[in-house]
């Protein structure tokens, strides 16, 4: 009896392997797709369609019990919770870096393989991630869908808007554990830490000079190529880096986002505040090794040393005249073109250089910032004070 049952079992198993669903039924089962009746997007699983539909309905039934944030799907909630737990289960088998999401690991691996599957159909530039390509395309379209609700400034990427808003709120959530300094962005904190470590991981392949910041290296390379790809659409002046262009544009718009906490004077960039504060402290950290004269700004020392060397590296391609400073060459060239891009918003008078406009504005305001320390007479321009001092020295 047992032998007979055993034979039947073997026969049944053999038949079950032979008798299967007809191929046309199998193919039909494999081809079954679930389509969204709103946007017509298709899914291979009904559960994925159900989750997708919540995008249209706005339904977010899965709520994080730590921060209260809600999600369309359970898998999104599970991934989010790892932010609180610190769990990063997806590890790169090349460099051991870990990630919260499997998709992030997949994108990361392309750094090692060099794979850039997402290509721009306008300029053929390629990217590791599709989201980077989407953001890049906005350079061509000019699209800036993320708008600040405080100042109406628009951005092509959401993360740039989030960072920008911290200018208004003053929020600086990232702190250096060495000196306690606070930063609005993690990238700024990472750059700052290199001040303490002395790390300069970015090397120029032309002159071998090293830098702590990749953007500074990119800007430095323009010295070798003489490339100035970023143009001001107001005055036409060119710059080697977008950050320098943005800072320059603030001179035209008079936008001054950064304030001195001593005198409350405003400036278009944080580097200007650092230099400005030396007026209050009297600090002049840059000393000429020829005459020992000191300067509060490194650029002023560089320009000053040309008095000793006689170096005038900036040459006019029209008349051949040379200048110690590039800004002097730029202003000089306008004598050939007749261009006067700096206009007084009080009387509409125009000037070749911004320094001329600054001096002119004082005729309206009555400001005389240069004072003689002998007789206390004040002047609009530093040059006028210098000439005046000779009256005392000749006596």
TrEMBL record:
<keyword id="KW-0479">Metal-binding</keyword>
<feature type="domain" description="C2H2-type">
    <location>
        <begin position="146"/>
        <end position="173"/>
    </location>
</feature>
<dbReference type="InterPro" id="IPR013087">
    <property type="entry name" value="Znf_C2H2_type"/>
</dbReference>
<dbReference type="InterPro" id="IPR001965">
    <property type="entry name" value="Znf_PHD"/>
</dbReference>
<dbReference type="GO" id="GO:0000981">
    <property type="term" value="F:DNA-binding transcription factor activity, RNA polymerase II-specific"/>
</dbReference>
<feature type="domain" description="C2H2-type">
    <location>
        <begin position="230"/>
        <end position="257"/>
    </location>
</feature>
<dbReference type="GO" id="GO:0005634">
    <property type="term" value="C:nucleus"/>
</dbReference>
<keyword id="KW-0805">Transcription regulation</keyword>
<feature type="domain" description="C2H2-type">
    <location>
        <begin position="118"/>
        <end position="145"/>
    </location>
</feature>
<feature type="domain" description="C2H2-type">
    <location>
        <begin position="34"/>
        <end position="61"/>
    </location>
</feature>
<keyword id="KW-0863">Zinc-finger</keyword>
<dbReference type="Pfam" id="PF00096">
    <property type="entry name" value="zf-C2H2"/>
</dbReference>
<feature type="domain" description="C2H2-type">
    <location>
        <begin position="370"/>
        <end position="395"/>
    </location>
</feature>
<dbReference type="GO" id="GO:0045944">
    <property type="term" value="P:positive regulation of transcription by RNA polymerase II"/>
</dbReference>
<feature type="domain" description="C2H2-type">
    <location>
        <begin position="202"/>
        <end position="229"/>
    </location>
</feature>
<dbReference type="GO" id="GO:0008270">
    <property type="term" value="F:zinc ion binding"/>
</dbReference>
<keyword id="KW-0677">Repeat</keyword>
<feature type="domain" description="C2H2-type">
    <location>
        <begin position="174"/>
        <end position="201"/>
    </location>
</feature>
<keyword id="KW-0539">Nucleus</keyword>
<keyword id="KW-0804">Transcription</keyword>
<feature type="domain" description="C2H2-type">
    <location>
        <begin position="90"/>
        <end position="117"/>
    </location>
</feature>
<feature type="domain" description="C2H2-type">
    <location>
        <begin position="62"/>
        <end position="89"/>
    </location>
</feature>
<feature type="domain" description="C2H2-type">
    <location>
        <begin position="286"/>
        <end position="313"/>
    </location>
</feature>
<keyword id="KW-0862">Zinc</keyword>
<feature type="domain" description="C2H2-type">
    <location>
        <begin position="342"/>
        <end position="369"/>
    </location>
</feature>
<dbReference type="InterPro" id="IPR036236">
    <property type="entry name" value="Znf_C2H2_sf"/>
</dbReference>
<dbReference type="InterPro" id="IPR050329">
    <property type="entry name" value="GLI_C2H2-zinc-finger"/>
</dbReference>
<feature type="domain" description="C2H2-type">
    <location>
        <begin position="314"/>
        <end position="341"/>
    </location>
</feature>
<comment type="similarity">
    <text>Belongs to the krueppel C2H2-type zinc-finger protein family.</text>
</comment>
<feature type="domain" description="C2H2-type">
    <location>
        <begin position="258"/>
        <end position="285"/>
    </location>
</feature>
<dbReference type="Pfam" id="PF13912">
    <property type="entry name" value="zf-C2H2_6"/>
</dbReference>
<dbReference type="GO" id="GO:0000978">
    <property type="term" value="F:RNA polymerase II cis-regulatory region sequence-specific DNA binding"/>
</dbReference>
<protein>
    <submittedName>
        <fullName>Zinc finger protein 239-like</fullName>
    </submittedName>
</protein>
<keyword id="KW-0238">DNA-binding</keyword>
């Amino acid at each position: 009896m047992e032998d007979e049952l055993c034979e039947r079992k073997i026969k049944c198993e053999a038949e079950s392997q032979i008798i299967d669903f007809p191929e046309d039924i199998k193919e039909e089962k494999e081809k079954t797709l679930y389509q969204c009746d709103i946007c017509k997007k298709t899914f291979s699983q009904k559960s994925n369609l159900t989750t997708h539909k919540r995008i249209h309905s706005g339904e977010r039934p899965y709520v994080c019990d730590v921060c209260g944030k809600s999600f369309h799907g359970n898998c999104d909630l599970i991934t989010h919770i790892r932010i609180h737990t610190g769990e990063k289960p997806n590890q790169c088998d090349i460099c051991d870096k870990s990630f919260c999401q499997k998709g992030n690991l997949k994108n990361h691996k392309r750094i090692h393989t060099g794979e850039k599957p997402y290509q721009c159909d306008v300029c053929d530039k390629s990217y590791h991630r599709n989201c980077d390509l989407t953001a890049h395309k906005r350079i061509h379209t000019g699209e800036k869908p993320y708008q600040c609700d405080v100042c109406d400034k628009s951005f092509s990427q959401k993360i740039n808007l989030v960072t920008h808003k911290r200018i208004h709120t003053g929020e600086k959530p990232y702190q250096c554990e060495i000196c306690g300094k606070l930063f609005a962005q993690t990238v700024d904190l990472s750059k700052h830490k290199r001040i303490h470590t002395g790390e300069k991981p970015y090397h120029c392949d032309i002159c071998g000079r090293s830098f702590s910041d990749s953007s500074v290296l990119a800007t430095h390379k323009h010295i070798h190529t003489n490339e100035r790809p970023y143009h001001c659409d107001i005055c036409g002046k060119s710059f080697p880096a977008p950050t320098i262009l943005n800072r320059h544009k603030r001179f035209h718009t008079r936008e001054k986002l950064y304030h001195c906490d001593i005198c409350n004077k405003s400036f278009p960039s944080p580097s200007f505040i650092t230099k400005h504060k030396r007026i209050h402290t009297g600090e002049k950290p840059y000393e000429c090794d020829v005459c020992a004269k000191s300067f509060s700004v490194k650029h002023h020392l560089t320009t000053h040393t040309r008095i000793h060397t006689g170096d005038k590296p900036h040459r006019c391609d029209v008349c051949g005249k040379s200048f110690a400073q590039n800004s002097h060459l730029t202003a000089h060239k306008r004598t050939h073109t007749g261009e006067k891009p700096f206009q007084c918003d009080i009387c509409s008078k125009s000037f070749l250089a911004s320094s001329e406009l600054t001096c002119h504005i004082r005729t309206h305001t009555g400001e005389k910032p240069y004072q003689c320390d002998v007789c206390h007479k004040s002047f609009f321009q530093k040059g006028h004070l210098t000439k005046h001092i000779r009256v005392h020295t000749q006596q």
